[in-house]
Design a protein that fits this description.
CATH superfamily of the largest domain: Alkaline Phosphatase, subunit A
Structural class: alpha/beta
Distance between the termini: 52 Å
CATH class of the largest domain: Alpha Beta
Number of domains: 2
């Protein structure tokens, strides 16, 4: 039988003891805050200091934080009894009122939910693409802030996930491919939250360290699976798929997106209501091979699905891009499948619909629990995905469809509803942002910075003006070379390491789809040289002893090509010797103003009469939107 709570005026003292509280709507009680317990302050509260109200069986304080969620949930009360002397009782009550008033002025840290999808590109949102149906994600954009220029610093599952947890770039955290484990000496931001009193849970795809997924000490609750996991509860051989639930093997029961959401809501229901929580829901979806939930199996059946094509590229394409088109990561032989690319993307979108349902369920639960206004939701992806653009599929490369991701943030009372931000933000910014929202300082190891003030509507003139990108060649997927890139609000410069190939330079204002390579345009010579130097400055000084761009060889690699596909690319004609002095000047003389002047004069002499000249402009001011930006939601 539950113990009846004493009236607030009869309890005092610093010690907090467990108490099972009744769920009667007529009784209101209190609990010691973590700060009060730590400082051994009296926990005396008057009944008038409580908000008279209930939501779904919850007792709410004025701040809206739940005190009692349901019958049988343990809360705390202050043990001990006030002295009988009336003056001391009054003094204690006055002191408690002062503490309460101070607490009311300092709102408690919010609950935090991070929802991560897999391989969801930046524009795969209904409010950006009318051919797509994502009502719950669209609602996040309406109710919160949309960062329309969000990126990852490496477009690959494990490196990006490590960047999210550590706030570091790949060259610093050392997770260089999908088989590398997370180094044990790095601080993960959920551990900081847990140390600060948050109850933490990880639910979903971990995918760092090959096929292992053991529980991590940063999380109070752990639900995961080895490697990529499975959409369905049986594998291709009919064997049951197992989940790791707090270190125990538990059979997967149903469609994975729904089941992970079930586990997430179970954590929310079972958590300690006296503590803030952090939930990291990391979906398997929408990673290939795509499998839709049964309820979405016929969705988009008659719809025209847009895809890209190599035919849209006018020229100036690197050899590796041309060769990849007829491979595992190419539009002609996508994942060694003969499925038309439009059908390939149709299945992708069907799998995404279950993620949209998941977000709707989470928000519905928060509303029912009265926690919607106490909870920050951040939604993003580990990387993007190409569907035929440049003749490619997959990620890894530095094209916009690969390195650009969705980023939505909802925080009632903190972030304005329907806001959009044009600044460049990245996955390395998530750790410092969530720590700032939890009122915790960033870590010295962080390469990223918090965007919380941007989301709140503040203007930050010193916000980053460039972002470096890196990807290291993998033996198992040899189609994409080691890639380094620098993106600014207007330009993107890409350099391929270890192959005999072209660099790339794009003006994202006039060419947001990156169709015209300006690397050999004499009018962009100064910009090319400048961005090349800035890329080196951004990447080289931070290289550490962890970085070895050589993956472990675990199989032959996905090296097959279709017999009737496109042939291997020809060597770039621009690299054939011309017999003039520029041949020697270009590669023997270091970059600099004098060389630039000579090369520019050579271009002028060799350029055909009446040849085109590019419109070369300056970077737009901070916060300015480019012509390629999508309209606000």
């Amino acid at each position: 039988m539950p113990v009846r709570a004493r009236p607030a005026a009869q309890t005092a003292g610093p010690a907090c003891a467990p108490l099972i509280l009744p769920a009667s709507p007529d009784r209101y009680t209190t609990h010691c805050s973590a700060t009060q317990a730590h400082r051994a302050l009296p926990c005396v509260r008057a009944a008038a200091s409580l908000r008279v109200g209930r939501r779904g069986g919850e007792v709410l304080t004025r701040s809206g934080r739940s005190v009692v969620r349901r019958r049988g949930i343990a809360a705390t009360r202050c043990a001990g009894r006030l002295p009988a002397t009336g003056g001391l009782v009054l003094l204690a009550l006055l002191f408690s009122a002062a503490v309460d008033a101070d607490a009311e002025q300092r709102p408690s840290p919010p609950n935090l939910i991070l929802v991560l999808t897999d391989d969801q590109r930046w524009d795969e949102l209904g409010f950006l693409d009318p051919t797509l149906d994502t009502p719950a994600l669209d609602a996040l954009a309406r109710d919160g802030v949309h960062f329309r220029n969000a990126f990852v610093t490496t477009s690959l599952c494990s490196p990006s996930r490590a960047s999210i947890l550590t706030g570091q770039t790949m060259r610093n955290h050392g997770v260089i491919d999908n088989n590398s484990p997370l180094p044990e000496d790095l601080e993960l931001f959920p551990g900081r939250l847990r140390d600060a009193g948050y109850e933490t849970a990880f639910v979903g795809k971990w995918h760092m360290g090959g096929e292992a997924s053991p529980p991590r000490p940063e999380f109070d609750r752990w639900v995961s699976f080895p490697g990529q996991g499975s959409y369905l509860p049986t594998d291709m051989l009919g064997r049951p798929v197992m989940l790791d639930v707090d270190g125990s093997a538990v059979p997967q029961r149903g469609y994975i997106t729904d089941e992970l959401t079930d586990y997430a809501i179970d954590f929310l229901q079972r958590r300690d209501p006296a503590r803030p929580f952090f939930l990291y829901l990391s979906h398997k979806a929408v990673h290939a091979p795509f499998v839709a939930a049964e309820r979405h199996a016929s969705q988009y059946g008659g719809a025209e699905i847009p895809v890209g094509s190599a035919a849209e590229d006018p020229g100036g394409v690197p050899i590796w891009v041309q060769n990849q088109r007829n491979s595992w990561h190419g539009e002609e032989f996508a994942y060694h499948s003969e499925l038309p690319l439009a059908e390939f993307r149709r299945e992708y979108r069907r799998a995404l619909s279950a993620v949209d349902d998941s977000v709707a369920r989470l928000r519905q639960w928060l509303r029912g629990a009265g926690l919607e206004h106490d909870t920050v939701i951040v939604f993003t992806s580990d990387n993007g995905f190409l569907f035929g653009e440049h003749g490619l599929i997959d990620k890894r490369n530095a094209y916009e469809e690969s390195m650009r991701v969705p980023l939505l943030a909802v925080a009632p009372g903190r972030f304005p509803a329907g806001g959009t931000r044009p600044e460049m933000v990245a996955n390395i910014d998530l750790a410092p942002t969530l720590l700032e929202l939890a009122e915790l300082a960033p870590s010295p190891q962080h390469d990223g910075v918090s965007w919380a003030k941007l989301a709140a509507g503040e203007e930050l003139p010193d916000w980053r003006r460039e972002l470096a990108y890196e990807y290291y060649w993998e033996y198992n997927y040899p189609h994409t070379p080691t890639t380094f890139a620098l993106r600014t609000p207007r330009y993107k410069y890409v350099q391929y390491h270890g192959v005999w190939d072209l660099e790339e330079l794009f003006d994202l204002t006039s060419d947001p789809r990156e169709r015209r390579n300006l690397i050999d345009d004499p009018q962009h010579l100064s910009i090319k040289v400048d961005l090349r130097q800035r890329l080196w400055q951004a990447v080289a000084p931070r290289q550490g002893d962890r970085v070895i761009p050589l993956g472990r060889k675990v199989n032959q690699g996905a090296v097959f090509r279709s017999r009737d596909g496109s042939p291997a690319a020809e060597f770039p004609h621009s690299w054939l010797r011309s017999g003039h002095d520029g041949d020697e000047l270009e590669h023997l003389v270091p970059d600099g103003p004098a060389k630039e002047q000579v090369v520019r004069r050579l271009h002028e002499v060799l350029r055909p009469e009446g040849g085109p000249e590019a419109d070369v402009g300056q970077e737009p001011p901070a916060g300015a939107a480019s012509q390629g930006d999508p309209p606000p939601p």
